[in-house]
Amino acid sequence: MMKLVLFAKVLVLCLFIVFTSCTTTKNLIYFKDHNNPIAKEGYILTARKASLIKPYDELYIRVSSYDEKMYNFFNPENLLRSTVNLEYYAYNVNDSGFILYPFIGKLKVGGLSIEQAQDSMQKKLEEMIEKPFVTIKYINKSFTVLGEVYKPGRYLIAKDQLTLLEALGMAGDLTDFGDRQHITLLRSENDTLRYHYFDLQKRDIVESPYYFLKPDDVVYVEPLKTKFWGIKSFPFGLVLTSVTTLITVLVFMKNY
Predict the structure, then answer these.
(1) DSSP letter assigned to residue 189
(2) Which of 23, 37, 51, 207 is the most exposed place for a label (fewest CB within 10 A)?
(3) Is the pTM higher than 0.70?
């Protein structure tokens, strides 16, 4: 009888260890603080400041115009289109913040936002082209997602005002082993690497000034200290092995 009691206690202890090493689905839920009164009213997003062009950036530049003379000069083979692209190329910003553009020469763009650079270039072109329209975009801007996501890697920034949630979505979302409460953002600011932390289970993350990503940001998702086991992945084999081992030990003790 004593051996059976001992067996039962040991079995309960093993099962306790197995189950306490799991984590429940509540650890996998986003924005679970729905009772927060501020969350019900809504949050005001803090808009990200425009990125400034820096040395060694690569810029996509497109210039369009309705000027027929300039159109014929740049595109004599196609006289039927009313709007033409005069230039379509990647330009490198040198270490002094300048690009070298045809017919303009050196143009200072370093330290300007994309909109400011477009306005500056458009004013220069107005001296040669009637009603020019300038489009400038980044080519080499990207961010990186590492850790417990389904598709870690480096991703190009295809739009302005990219949010942390959108970045995680591009990486395939967090795995079941990703810690929603410990998301780290690494950002280089004024030649200093700084760390910022997020808890995806709180809705107020959208108010963070770091909610919008910047080029070259790195997002790291920590793994959970314990792992969630679903029905399909429950360690039945481990439990059965433990029970079998205990029975073998008890039988051995009885015979001894």
Answers:
(1) E
(2) 37
(3) no
Q: What is the CATH number of the domain that holds 166?
A: 3.10.560.10
pLDDT at 30: 65
Share of the chain above pLDDT 90, in %: 30
Alpha-carbon torsion (50, 53, 59, 64), positive or negative:
positive
Given 78, 111, 138, which residue is the final one in a domain?
Answer: 138
Are 201 and 92 in the same domain? no
150 DSSP assignment: S
| 248 or 224, higher pLDDT | 224
Q: Kindly state the helix (H) or strand (E) to which residue 222 belongs, with its residue range.
A: strand 218-223
Q: Which helix (H) or strand (E) is 156 found in, with range?
A: strand 153-156
Q: Are residues 42 and 154 in the same domain?
A: yes
In this prediction, residue 83 carries a pLDDT of 47
Domain boundary residue among 118, 138, 158? 138
Name the percent of the chain in helix, strand, coil, to the closest 5.
30, 30, 40
Alpha carbon distances (Å) from 156 to 26, 141, 143: 32, 6, 6
Q: Is the pLDDT of residue 163 over 80?
A: yes
Domain that holds residue 123: 58-138
118 and 176 co-located in one domain: no
CB half-sphere exposure, 109, CA atoms < 13 A: 34
CB 197 within 8 A of CB 182: yes
Provide the domain count of the chain.
3
Mean per-residue pLDDT of the chain: 76
